[in-house]
Amino acid sequence: MDKLLFAICLGGAVALGFYAIFQLFAQTPGEDRTYKDRPPLLFRLFWPLIQLIAASFRWALSARSEKRYLLALQRAGQSYALTPAQFFAGKLVSAAIGLLFGWLIVGMLGSSSLVIPVGLGVFAFFYPDLWLKDITKKRNLVILKSLPFFIDLLILSVEAGLNLSGALQQAVNRSRPGPLVNEINRVLRDVRAGKSRIDALRDFSERLDFTPVTSFVSALVQGDRTGSNLGPILRAQADQRRIERFLRAEKLAMEAPVKMLGPLIMFIFPCTFIVIGFPIVMKFMASGL
Predict the structure, then answer these.
(1) Most-buried pick from 7, 33, 84, 114 (CB within 10 A)?
(2) Contact, 182 vs 77, CB < 8 A?
(3) What separation in angstroms does the CA of 66 have from each of 47, 54, 81, 82, 83?
(4) The dihedral formed by the CA atoms of 151, 152, 157 and 162, expressed in degrees to the nearest 10
(5) How far is it, in rounded angstroms, from Cα 51 to Cα 90?
(6) What gap in Å lies between CA 97 and CA 43, rounded to an integer?
(7) pLDDT tens digits along 79-93
(8) What is the C-alpha separation between 99 and 43, in angstroms, rounded?
């Protein structure tokens, strides 16, 4: 009788727990994502849970952290895919996955140490930040590569008699899709919405916070404000961007030998020593030494 009563109570508790979880997910406010980008893969896998955590634990995200996450998302081009609260919720979900994986490893090893679960949890909590920095670095590299050609199109459009807004639109129409085109399209949308061209360009510079783009925007703003001819200014910017690309390629070429030392020492040198030393060792063994 006691076992039956215990089983009934346990089943009722489990049912109430599932009902409470269902109500939490049902009461999570919806989000209109018609004009938003798809979230990254990790966020899509746990999207209902992330939405729930973002709505329930928004109080844990300070205004300073929210602003910092928003700037990081803008620089990575993810501001139309995630909000700061959703990104913070993704970090919490990642930390929970790291803890569970750490406990699984500890259970397989038969240990009771907390170092592995806590270490994996901390690493998983900060992994989205590392991922965001990597995305930002790759995005800036794409922008740096496409900027000189984009400026060349601007020069042709300006010297053909178009104003700056028309030149930007023509350059966008004739450029390959990419991060730079997306950002310039946002600038043009801001201008059409009523924002001044200078403010829209400055917002573009602040969103990326990338030195070549900041220099390019400063030259455009200065030329637009003074009413001077933009052709020579843009030509100087294009030359400068190409010089920066060449210097970056030269730097990477000089770093290549240093980066090759690790694989050489760890993988190639031991194999070489084995191939060279094996006949010598065999001769010593054959001679009885």
Answers:
(1) 84
(2) yes
(3) 19, 12, 15, 12, 9
(4) 30
(5) 9
(6) 13
(7) 888 888 889 988 988
(8) 18
Place of tokens 């909590």: 125
CA distance 243 to 7: 75
Reference 98, options 88, 106, 109; nearest CA is 106
Rounded Cα distance between 88 and 84, Å, is 6
- How far apart are the C-alpha atoms of 265 and 187, rounded to whole Å? 50
What tokens does 26 get? 């049902």
d(CA 159, CA 216): 18
Residue with tokens 């700056």, as numbered in its chain: 164
d(C-alpha 57, C-alpha 226), whole Å: 49
pLDDT in tens, 195-250: 888 888 888 888 888 888 888 888 888 877 777 777 788 888 888 888 888 888 78
Rounded distance, CA 280 to CA 79, Å?
A: 63
Residue 192, C-beta contacts closer than 8 angstroms, at least 6 positions apart: none
pTM of the model: 0.74
Q: Where are the domains of the chain?
A: 140-243
Amino acid at 135: I
